[in-house]
Amino acid sequence: MILVIGGTGTTGRLVAAKLAAAGRQARVASRRASAEGVRFDWYDRGTHDTALDGATGLYLIAPLGDADPASTMLPFLDLARRAGVRRAVLLSSSAIDAGTPGLGEVQAQLGEMITDLLGRPVRHRAVDEDALTAYHEAHGLAPDYARFLAGLDTAVAAGSEDRVTTTVADVTGRPARTFRDFCRDRLAGAPCAADA
Ligand SMILES: NC(=O)c1ccc[n+]([C@@H]2O[C@H](COP(=O)([O-])OP(=O)(O)OC[C@H]3O[C@@H](n4cnc5c(N)ncnc54)[C@H](OP(=O)(O)O)[C@@H]3O)[C@@H](O)[C@H]2O)c1
Predict the structure, then answer these.
(1) Ligand 1 binding residues, C-beta < 6 A
(2) pTM, to two decimals
(3) Among 38, 120, 121, 191, which lies 20 to 30 A Cα-Cα from 70?
């Protein structure tokens, strides 16, 4: 059984659906999981054993808004290993290093593309790192995590994501779509990337 942490969220929901469609047993875990899922809270150790019972694999998203996720996740991973988990897939980010504001030009170009496809204007507005940090804080993130997230956009603007990889093809066996094709498919009501 695969334990899908954050299985009610944006990515976990899709992972759980994909596993079910592939005939794999998936257990959705979150603080407010439905009756078919299991209650799991990163910060409530008492929820961990039940969630891991029978699990051989894990889909992992880090505890949200936590600037030091390792101190919570590493003990859990130890526990998971002892409970029989042999494989874990972590939703991470490759934009962890470096520094400067916003996604800038990339977002501007994407705005133009979406405007073109939607037929109504979508504009990019540049926001510097301090403003983005303040925005995240105003929306409830802890100050250090707000600064960390804003810093990731700064790193992206500095080029930390400027590369093309073969990962999609390597993992799925089909070539990656362009962003334009992705938007067009979504607008046409096609299944999202995780279903393709
Ligand atoms: N979405 C992306 O494309 C993407 C890409 C790269 C990295 N990330 C990273 O992945 C994380 C978010 O992933 P997401 O977008 O899939 O999730 P999301 O839509 O933000 O949903 C969060 C999920 O985690 C659960 N959750 C929140 N707090 C929890 C806690 N203390 N213990 C257990 N479960 C908890 C939520 O359910 P409950 O509220 O019921 O607990 C929900 O299922 C962030 O760290 C983000 O930076 C996301």
Answers:
(1) 6-12, 30-32, 40-43, 61-64, 91, 93
(2) 0.68
(3) 38
Contacts of 190 (CB under 8 A, 6+ apart): 196
Query: Per residue in 140-175, pLDDT tens?
Result: 999 999 999 899 888 888 888 888 889 889 988 999
pLDDT value, residue 191: 59
How many structural domains does the chain have? Answer: 2
Domain boundary among 32, 66, 90: 90
- Domain hosting residue 128, numbered range: 104-195
Atom number, ligand 1, closest to the C-alpha of residue 69: 45
Cα–Cα separations (whole angstroms), residue 17 to 20, 53, 68, 83: 5, 20, 30, 24
Which of these three, 68, 90, 112, is where a domain ends? 90
45-95 pLDDT, tens per residue? 999 999 999 999 999 888 887 777 788 888 888 899 889 988 888 786 654
Whose alpha carbon is nearest atom 35 of ligand 1?
30
